[in-house]
Specification:
- Helix content is about 30%, strand content about 20%.
- By secondary structure, it is of the alpha/beta class.
- Strands 5-3-2-6-9-10-1-11 form an 8-stranded parallel β-sheet, covered by helices on one side. A 3-stranded antiparallel β-sheet has the order 4-8-7, covered by helices on one side.
- Strand 2, helix 2 and strand 3 form a beta-alpha-beta unit.
- It binds fructose -6-phosphate (F6R).
- Fructose -6-phosphate binds next to loops.
- The site of fructose -6-phosphate has 14 residues, from loops.
Length: about 250
């Protein structure tokens, strides 16, 4: 595990974008696992800049998103499909057939989950998985008490997650309560993982994920078992960690 601590949100975003861009430069047909939420927006902006300046191309890149809400149309502005088009896919040269996001309006959820896992396998697995983290320690939408051996599956969102995500909706009642998410096992199969966190409200879950007991109660704690994981944190998210163990890039 490597922990990189930078000054602020923008530095975190740039650092994470550089990690993803390096992956694409080294392997132009990389398979990326991508996250949504507030945290990676700055990273996507920097990735788009790298594309615009000719440093990277998505022509041969394949992407798999972590999750999608159930029963939210793709064109709904709160769907993760819409988010990904707005923040990345409409701004780079990725082919539509190389974009994979779970289908949240499927008639057969179980089949869709199996199909998604198969697609990942057919593409040779995920080279680098980008993650955010929920205040309750969730990764993807793997909420506390998840089974570590879960593959892509339907999840019931935690009350805390519904409350946290209500900031994107007009009322809390509009927030979907279910989603399709890659499972912990799917995430742990990625060859490399980069987790981003910013802000003091993430300090506790980051502390628990890195130093706490490995437990399904704090899903991100499972990352302690991954052989190639890097946490890119701003000072506030890293504020509870012991400073000797961190690469402080702001020193
Ligand atoms: C999003 C996802 C979630 C978010 C997490 C943090 O695809 O899988 O795990 O990363 O809820 O969300 P933000 O970044 O909005 O705090």
């Amino acid at each position: 595990m490597r922990i990189i601590c930078v000054n602020n949100y923008d530095e975190m975003s740039e650092k994470a974008a550089n990690i993803v861009a390096s992956q694409i430069i080294l392997k132009p047909d990389s398979v990326l696992g991508l996250a949504t939420g507030s945290t990676p927006i700055g990273m996507y902006n920097h990735i788009v800049k790298a594309y615009e300046s000719g440093k990277i191309s998505f022509q041969n890149v394949t992407t798999f998103n972590l999750d999608e809400y159930l029963n939210l149309d793709k064109n709904n502005a709160q769907s993760y499909y819409f988010y990904m088009r707005k923040n990345l896919y409409d701004k780079v040269d990725i082919s539509i057939e190389n974009i994979n996001i779970p289908d949240g309006i499927t008639d057969n959820i179980q089949e869709e989950c199996i199909r998604y896992e198969k697609e990942i396998r057919n593409k040779g697995g995920i080279d680098i998985q980008v993650l955010g983290i929920g205040r309750n320690g969730h990764i993807g939408f793997n909420e506390p008490d998840i089974k570590f051996e879960a593959l892509t599956h339907m999840v019931n969102l935690d009350d805390q997650t519904i409350k946290d995500n209500s900031r994107f909706f007009d009322t809390v009642k509009e927030v979907p309560t279910k989603a399709i998410s890659m499972g912990i096992k799917t995430i742990m199969r990625a060859r490399k993982i980069v987790l981003l966190a910013s802000g003091k409200e993430k300090a506790n879950c980051i502390y628990e994920a890195i130093y706490g007991k490995i437990t399904p109660n704090l899903p991100a704690s499972v990352l302690q078992l991954h052989p190639d994981v890097v946490f890119v944190l701003d000072k506030e998210a890293a504020s509870k960690l012991d400073s000797e163990e961190i690469d402080k890039e702001y020193l």
